[in-house]
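> @MW can you paste both from yesterday?
MW: sure, first one:
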Amino acid sequence: MIYLDYNATTPLAEEVVRGLQPYLHEEYGNPSSDYALGQRARAAVAGARTQVAALLGAQPEEIVFVSSATEANNWVLKGVTHQRRERGRHLITTTIEHPAVLNPCLFLLEEGWEVSFVRVDGRGLVDPEDIRRAIRPETVLISVMLANNETGAIQPVAAISQIAREHGVALHTDAAQAVGKIPVNVQDLGVDFLTVAGHKLYAPKGIGALYIRSGQRLTPLLHGAAQEGGRRAGTENVILDVALGLACDLAKDRLAADMVHLQARRDQLHELLQAGWPGLVLNGPVQERLPNTLNVSFPGLSGAEILAGIPDLAASTGAACHGPEVKLSHVLAAMGVPPHIGQGAVRLSVGRGTTAADIEQAADLLLERVRTLA
């Protein structure tokens, strides 16, 4: 199988697998215990927290381990709005966010909050000035993803943070797709909250992190004991915390080389597909895009049909089939992609393990399939 769905999930890095082995066996202590076994577990979690912080340009005490990016996003949206409900009951997000942001926003709508869903342009990029125009005196939070999971479009979060600061509004970014693929520094971005997903950067599923800028407060989602500085109750998952720390440390060391490799494989694939299918359409920006992500359409065809006929290729579509109907993804729909183009979309995302030979074979398989369907 040729795996081109790294935006969905990544395999575990070998360095991560090796590093977490002791915590599967002999290092099973509870970090809250005071004897040596517990102390070593506590030190391991602290070390992992430092590794995550180092990748993000944060302080260790600003990092909280969570179960997933979904938990982190829910926590920010519900925790900030609960903390600041006396100031106002309005928040801002965009039309292309992950469901882990959009659905909590819909929940808050049902709870009486007002939510502004800012549109994007045809490239999938939000205009910071549209964010500025959406701000009201009662706005308490802005949530804009750093990089889109479908198109790879990198949003102008640093510019939005300047606007947010001018109005005293907290800013959150879901950076699940960005961390480990491009430089992500919380100081440069100017964000108050930032979400990390472990399984997008070669750590296991079931672990993530939330950056909380010093001085910012969130109402906890989980109430219990005083783990994570009293911010998230529950016995620490030492194994997964260590794994995320190792993955972040690896990403920090490899980032520059990885970016070169990812972009080379992505562009190789794009060039081969364009040469073999001149009507190919790129969905998303040419430049402001993750180095590993290629979302393209074969107009007049069905992305789902294309991939269904290539069992040896793992990739995603830009549309979902519901019985006889084909529904565009909310991202492509928000970009104004016409149905006859969007229905033929496929998302191809490369990773560290992707070789030039993989790309050549994937392009051949895709082109052979679309020629059969045309």
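MW: second:
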Amino acid sequence: MFSRNPRLDRAAVLAGVCTLSILMCTCRQPELVRGQAQAEAGGPVTIATAWPWESRATLLYGQGLQMAVDETNAAGGVLGRPLQVLREDDHESVDEGRLVARRLAQDDDVVAVIGHMQSYVSLPAAAIYDLFGIVHLAPTSTDPRLTQQGYRRLFRMTFTDRETGAQMADFAAERGYDRIAIYYIRNAYGRGLANAFEERALERGVGIADRQSYDPNAVGGDRALTDILASWRDLSLRAIFIAGEPREAAAMIRAARERAIDVPVLGGDALGTAAFVSLGGRAVEGTVLAAAFHPGDERETVRQFSVRFRERYGRLPDASAALAYDAVRLLAHGMTQAESVDPDRVADALRATAGWRGVTGPVTFTDEGDLVERAIGKVVVRNGRLVWLGDGAEGE
């Protein structure tokens, strides 16, 4: 989810972490300093959230986060102490995200961080949070590599690109789509999602008729898309799978419809936004997308959350709001179970969590900090809005 991903400079990331290691070479480990400071503190419990507030102002992430904080505090806070949130803007930038992570790491009051939106920002930031002993909840980062580094205080709140691609391929197989073209953004998110879809499709006996990628920054992109669609008209396609961002995906579908390519379209979770629907217009009607959350989910927890959210903000929550809400509530749960705000004890409590019920679904973590496999929901674009399909309903 949410992964417009420039190429990471791994050497620079490692160099930054090494520099931090040298600066922190004291007689006491940073996680012990932080843990003791918080154990001895009175007053509020400080958690931080790193998010591209300015560039993603249309998302309702901040509203969901604040609602969870206010509800927690109204119920007595955490261990008798109120929660307070420190907000930082990472501007969807690797460099800015690293600077934000360093600022938060140097604040001994911060016991946990919720963020970042983009996987490519979370990856280098996670190394800093781990080094400085901070619990890190990643609400929207879907790159599988995030939880493959051995960090003991890191937890992912959503599914991975591999899980999304595989389950969307299962959806296609169950509907008999036996000749599928894949169109993906040329970055880690697009490749990972496209690879997972293709691998599972082939396992299920679904044929992949063609696979094409795009560079969103390339000059002459319209011409390249025209050439791709011209070749696809002769392939007798049964469906198209898109692993990309809303703007380019909407443009691709509009162009396909103009060329009488009217097959069903499936897409990854990054497309499940109002922007995709608005940009695509009538052309994207019937598109089925992976979804971490939708207020139309009939579970009682979702219904109650959506009612409270609408009463408070005058609109229904989106997936980012639900993920932020769950992240805050889960942190409060972990602190309560640990009977401490010490980051190591909180991390142990989170890793031991089994079947905790969030509005985005049940939460049980693997030892690596990933969610134990859960069914991925789906939405369909219908009459200009996103409509909940659940995890098994028929699309259009």
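> thanks! The mean pLDDT is 90.
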